[in-house]
Amino acid sequence: MYHEIAEDLIRAIEAGTFHDKLPTEQQLMKQYAVSRNTIRRAIDVVYQRGLLRRVQGSGYFINQTQLENKATLNLSFGVGKKLLAGGILTSKVVTFDRVKAGEIDLASRLRIDADLDLYRIFRLRYLNAQLYCYEQAYYMRDVIPFLSTDSINSSILDFVRDTYDIEISSSENFISQVSLEPDQAELLHAPVGTLKMMLEQVSYSKNNVPFNFSRTIYDYPGLNFYFHSAHLASN
């Protein structure tokens, strides 16, 4: 229940329903007819997404800086969630086939069997019709036995959630600068060796089993990477 409330609050924040602060816990309890504990868990989800600042004794304030930057990749949302404010992502599939984990050196990286069958999807993604990134993604077929053509042209993770009831519980993110190889340079219409930012991600389901690995090379002007972190107070 708290996840649905959290998503509803996120939509309201992005729509500008709350201009400066979130309503009080009491107001939200009344609005959603749930307990204080449920509201606190929902607020914590929104906070972890980087959309709120907590001020002791004053409540939760909207993080306007994160909302206003239209070219920000919010890693706090997790893979497959809202990527950029105010944008529509479309895809052009370059490769859609199957490979073994050992063929592409992912067996040791993900601690999986070298004979494990993977879906391989390479695609160019466009934000509001402008080239945004080149994504190379792999999905474990023992967890996700089927991907539809429609899903690889839109949101694969939405399909995985709706079809298999699998959502990402955690992910590892590695950001690095890479030099474009010939095949990458051709697809991105850039000279070989051009430096680009790359995000590698490993996605885990609720039982901590990896089911997806991706490398995404970004090619969007003025793109920023945002990640929210919360620090525990020390004694």
What does this structure look like?
- Keywords: DNA-binding, Transcription, Transcription regulation.
- Residues 1-65 form the HTH gntR-type domain.
- This is GntR family transcriptional regulator.
- The protein has 235 residues and is an alpha+beta fold.
- It folds into 2 domains: 2-67, Orthogonal Bundle (Arc Repressor Mutant, subunit A), CATH 1.10.10; 72-226, Chorismate lyase (3-Layer(aba) Sandwich).
- It is built from 8 helices and 10 strands.
- The protein has helices at residues 2-14, 25-32, 36-48, 64-68, 107-110, 149-153, 156-164, 182-188; strands spanning 52-55, 59-62, 72-74, 89-100, 117-127, 130-140, 170-179, 195-204, 210-218, 224-226.
- The protein has a 6-stranded antiparallel β-sheet with strand order 4-5-6-9-8-7, covered by helices on one side. Strands 1-2 form a two-stranded antiparallel sheet.
- It starts with a helix and ends in a 9-residue tail after the last strand.
SSE layout and pairing:
Elements (H helix, E strand, L loop, with lengths): L1 H13 L10 H8 L3 H13 L3 E4 L3 E4 L1 H5 L3 E3 L14 E12 L6 H4 L6 E11 L2 E11 L8 H5 L2 H9 L5 E10 L2 H7 L6 E10 L5 E9 L5 E3 L9
Parallel strand pairs: 3-10
Antiparallel strand pairs: 1-2, 4-5, 5-6, 6-9, 7-8, 8-9
Protein name: GntR family transcriptional regulator
Keywords: DNA-binding, Transcription, Transcription regulation
Pfam family, one: GntR
In short:
Helix content is 27%, strand content 33%. With 235 residues, it is of the alpha+beta class. A hairpin with a 5-residue loop joins β8 and β9.
